[in-house]
Design a protein that fits this description.
It contains 13 helices and 13 strands. By secondary structure, it is mainly alpha-helical. The chain has a 3-stranded antiparallel β-sheet with strand order 1-2-3. The chain has a 3-stranded antiparallel β-sheet with strand order 6-9-10, with no helix packed on it.
């Protein structure tokens, strides 16, 4: 009986991944649309800029698709154009066209999720293609993240969103969607294992304290201080564009059960019939505007991991249709592809 259930589960998993999704074909289309020949991931909806997050996502997808020919120019462009900071191995987060027409770094501050994604992809590439240079470069970035972006406060290790601008007098401004749990697990295998194990554990606790509103959902941005955790409304009061990624990162880590609002989101979808663009966690309002296809894919992945296979397939089918009409939306296409991947493979 147990073997039969296991085989049935595997069959359902394969069905989920093949019924509507064609990852290899979708990846080829993604590269053609969003990746320049020299390896730059282009964000068309933000003035054709590139950013460390986009390069990290591109590198990660190249590894997951076993595409070393795409990975190499992606990494070369990232290293040559974003690794321009003095004194550390972090990456400038924003690159684009300056007022004088020159294309170059626009902001030398880093974005921590970009650095985490880049290092994680390099580690995966090193292991998959037996490339020790990638492993060495990944270790440099992981070390820089540890030394420059993680602070100890009130007995907890907190991951700052960037090098500059997130430590205030009243507390620390954090972005829960920068907590990529499966990456922290892999970092523990190459650099300061006890440190990264604690980062992983403390980050899960931070996430649990970041749930607000009737649905107990994580906010895009939070403020942690001595008296507790609150929504950082100066940046966002929503579960939205940023926080939707948390569902994917928890799914990759097998930790969706740690987020009380995960099942509540699926129940909300069943009642509404659509995935909202955001949820206002202060006013407890649900957006009437529909989210993009990538959001549907994330919800589909969440439904799969929570045991709702039929709902998962329906959501992914809607996601596939929606992304076809979103030709310029790099972020939606990225979420769509990554929702079909196993982050710990």
């Amino acid at each position: 009986m147990k073997l039969r259930k296991t085989l049935l589960g595997l069959a359902l998993l394969l069905a989920w991944g093949t019924a509507y999704a064609q990852p290899a074909k979708d990846w080829e289309a993604y590269k053609k649309r969003f990746v320049s020949p020299d390896g730059r991931v282009v964000d068309f909806l933000q003035g054709q800029i590139s950013h460390s997050e986009g390069q990290g996502y591109g590198l990660l997808q190249a590894v997951l698709q076993d595409d070393p020919k795409a990975f190499s120019p992606l990494w070369n462009w990232t290293r040559d154009n974003l690794r321009m900071r003095k004194g550390d191995s972090l990456h400038a987060w924003k690159w684009g066209q300056r007022p004088n027409g020159q294309w170059a770094v626009l902001d030398y501050n880093n974005a921590t999720d970009g650095d985490i994604l880049i290092a994680w992809a390099l580690l995966k590439g090193a292991r998959k293609w037996k490339n020790e240079a990638y492993r060495s470069q990944a270790r440099e970035i992981v070390k820089a993240v540890r030394e420059n972006l993680i602070v100890q406060r009130r007995g907890k290790l907190l991951v700052l969103p960037g090098y500059y601008g997130f430590v205030l007098k009243e507390g620390e401004v954090l972005n829960p969607s920068y907590l990529i749990f499966a990456a922290f697990r892999e970092f523990a295998g190459v650099e300061e294992p006890q440190f990264w194990k604690k980062v992983y554990e403390d980050s899960l606790e931070v996430l649990q304290k970041s749930a607000f509103g009737r649905l107990s959902l994580p906010a895009d941005w939070i403020l942690m201080k001595e008296s507790g955790t609150s929504i950082y409304q100066e940046r966002s009061r929503f579960f939205g564009y940023e926080a939707v990624r948390i569902l994917l990162y928890l799914a990759w880590d097998g930790s969706l059960g740690t987020l009380p609002g995960a099942k509540a989101l699926l129940d909300m979808y069943k009642k509404l019939g659509y995935v909202p663009l955001n949820v206002d966690l202060v006013m407890n309002n649900i957006s009437l505007e529909e989210g993009p296809g990538g959001y549907y894919a994330v919800y589909g992945r969440m439904a799969r991991d929570l045991g709702e296979g039929e709902l998962s397939r329906s959501l992914l089918q809607r996601a596939a249709k929606k992304v076809q009409a979103e030709k310029d939306d790099y972020y939606s296409h990225t979420l769509y592809l990554l929702s079909q991947a196993e982050g710990r493979q």
